[in-house]
What does this fold into?
Amino acid sequence: MATKQLVILAYPKIDHEKDYVYFWMPFSLLSIAKMLLDEGNTEVLLFDGNQSDEAEWERFLDRHLDRAICIGLSVMTGGGQIAHALNMAAIAKSRRSCPPLVFGGPHVNVLPDQTLAHPLVDFILIGPGQTSMPAFVAALQGRRALSNVPGLKAKTLGGLVVGPENPARTRDLGAYPWHLLDVEKYVRDDPVVSPRTLNYVSSQGCVYKCRFCYELTYKRKYSRIGADVLLSDVTELVENFGIGGIKFYDADWFIDIHRAATFARGLIDQRMNIRWAASINPNDIVKARRLEPELLPLIRDSGCSRLLMGVESGSDRILAEVVEKEITRDGIIEVAKQIADHGILGSYTFIVGFPGESPREQAETYDLIERLWKLTPTPETRVHVFAPYPGTPLFDAAISHGFKPPVSFEKWATYDYYDSLTPWTDSTTVRKARAYTRMKLAPVRMETA
It folds into this structure.
């Protein structure tokens, strides 16, 4: 039997904050890999730059490049990922047997032409990779024309090739191909969940319209792993890898309230002895009062120990006019109290330094945090300094207030969203934000030889 050609999917390293220990698997690449494997025309290998260094990338290429049909690199804005992607691309390009390099991901989606202009970029794919990447591979294998690949832009000897629009909606997700990664490397000690916690993304897209958020820009329609498949996949992780906890890092895990309730009931019915955490929008709690009135006690009884919620601001004007959060300060306090009353830890994130935000409005955010700290259990809080993301409505607002964005793909490589990036914020803004960040973290454990 002839050996199948190989698709390499690479997730470049992200420069997280110091001592950050809770990074997650490259789920975007896992979902693409599943589609490719389901089609059966290629093999797939994943390389995670968060787990492996540059020397390992070189050894990886030495082992596999001779049968690779392409290398796909996923990049987001900020966190140094673009810089690491370009370094990985340069190493690959230095080899004579290097196949085409195709870039995708959130940053490519919003600044496609700027990305394609870089000399290390051969192709870009705009929109959901589950749709475009299998079609792109088919084109490389001669089974499809490049001009028919959804979301494709390519530099060729004959000029620019542009494929049709890549639809924002994809089919629902399925169970992940865990065999492509060493799952044990991603297990983390989370004191609120379990000493053996695994991060998990079970959906893509979001129905809310927060004006700072990349989900709005990405225009990705909501798709998810169904409750039954999700329950089966989590059961497999528990049985095969000894996982004791799951942290769902979806944009909003509770968009489908009935899915959430069905999953929780399944955990209870199966007597699954795990703890879990998930992201939630405050409006989901409000909707649940009508759709699933017993949602909070149900998820608590199923093992939910933490709910992560983006609050964003303590100012009603910022919430309504700047963020468009669709809830008021008083509504947030009411929701947070409900969560605490059910014994679930609330973990609330905030942003300071929005364009046009006044010192008084920023003070209202810190005042709200102090008020939330009085709840029992005492919530976690994390404060970010506003970072303008290209393609979002607040990116244009930031420019109108004096922000000057990077002008090339390479210059975006130094965009550090952990620091002050706008002329109206500074190191004092960053220090105060960090002072109001209080998380329940397990101690960092040093590896021993």
Confidence is low (pLDDT under 50) at residues 444-449. The domain at 187-435 is CATH 3.20.20.70 (TIM Barrel). The first helix runs from residue 27 to 39. The radius of gyration is 22 Å.
